[in-house]
């Protein structure tokens, strides 16, 4: 591993490695890693993830998706590893996607150190009700250097908006002064058609909280099967994008539109975005296979 700079691991069960600590503590493990991606890996305890990260002193890109732990820490106790391991200061690209409250401990560990980094690309794509407060605090600390932010919410059920509500109630996005790209994902209208508007409830709320004068692109990952789906909340979306903080907006992107309605959806959007947006903003509709 001495010359390995990129490590992508998917579905690895680290919980069966009794000597995990010894392996990761032996130089030159991780010393050359610049990119570490862990996808659906299993660990025996939460502390192993920060341990692994802290060994990668040259790390620039970190992506953690749906990690599992055999044992979780007691939320009433201070994590014993919280001060023992440090976040690599060269980190620039961070993606965290945890579909349960276990992600709060990881965010709590990352938060005190994030101010020493220069995170440019930040993606928190599975914010739950349990992680909403920690995610909001993390974004505030990381804010000034972030140029691209991705947010996604996982409500506890199809007929609630508890994750969206919890985040929007505490989020302060005023520190995102360098933000150029905002991406809201994943949002789906079509799984439960009668309540599909709920999954997009937070879009205007988040848009109104952003204060960066540098916003150029807004990406809304909404699955659209019919052009009429765009009617839901469109008035408030238009009002939000007409705000002073979007004065230099260049494009609004809808990347998940059913192929057969792409042209119709684009025409519909261009006609309804308002006079100023029609003059200055390009609407991009990307097809989704039927």
From TrEMBL:
<dbReference type="InterPro" id="IPR032675">
    <property type="entry name" value="LRR_dom_sf"/>
</dbReference>
<protein>
    <recommendedName>
        <fullName>F-box domain-containing protein</fullName>
    </recommendedName>
</protein>
């Amino acid at each position: 591993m001495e010359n390995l700079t990129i490590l992508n691991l998917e579905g690895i069960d680290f919980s069966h490695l009794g000597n995990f600590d010894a392996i990761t503590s032996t130089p030159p493990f991780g010393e050359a890693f610049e990119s570490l991606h862990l996808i659906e890996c299993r660990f025996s305890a939460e502390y192993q993830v920060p341990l692994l990260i802290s060994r990668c002193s040259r790390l620039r890109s970190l992506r953690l998706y749906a990690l599992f732990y055999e044992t979780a820490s007691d939320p009433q106790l201070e994590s014993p590893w919280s001060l023992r391991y440090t976040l690599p200061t060269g980190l620039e690209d961070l993606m965290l996607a945890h579909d349960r409250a276990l992600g709060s401990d990881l965010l709590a560990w990352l938060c005190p150190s994030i101010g020493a980094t220069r995170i440019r690309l930040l993606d928190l794509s599975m914010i739950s009700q349990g992680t909403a407060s920690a995610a909001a605090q993390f974004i505030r600390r990381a804010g000034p250097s972030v140029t691209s932010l991705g947010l996604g919410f996982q409500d506890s059920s199809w007929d609630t908006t508890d994750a969206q509500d919890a985040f929007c109630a505490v989020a302060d996005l005023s520190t995102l002064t360098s933000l150029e790209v905002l991406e809201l994902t994943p949002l789906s209208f079509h799984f439960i058609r009668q309540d599909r508007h709920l999954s997009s409830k937070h879009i205007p709320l988040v848009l109104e909280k952003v204060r960066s004068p540098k916003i150029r692109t807004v990406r809304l990952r909404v699955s659209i099967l019919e052009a009429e789906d765009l009617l839901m909340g469109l008035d408030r979306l238009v009002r939000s994008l007409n705000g002073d903080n979007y004065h230099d907006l260049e494009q609004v992107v809808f990347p998940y539109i059913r192929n057969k309605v792409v042209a119709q959806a684009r025409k519909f959007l261009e006609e309804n975005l308002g006079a100023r947006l029609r003059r200055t903003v390009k609407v991009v509709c990307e097809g989704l296979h039927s």
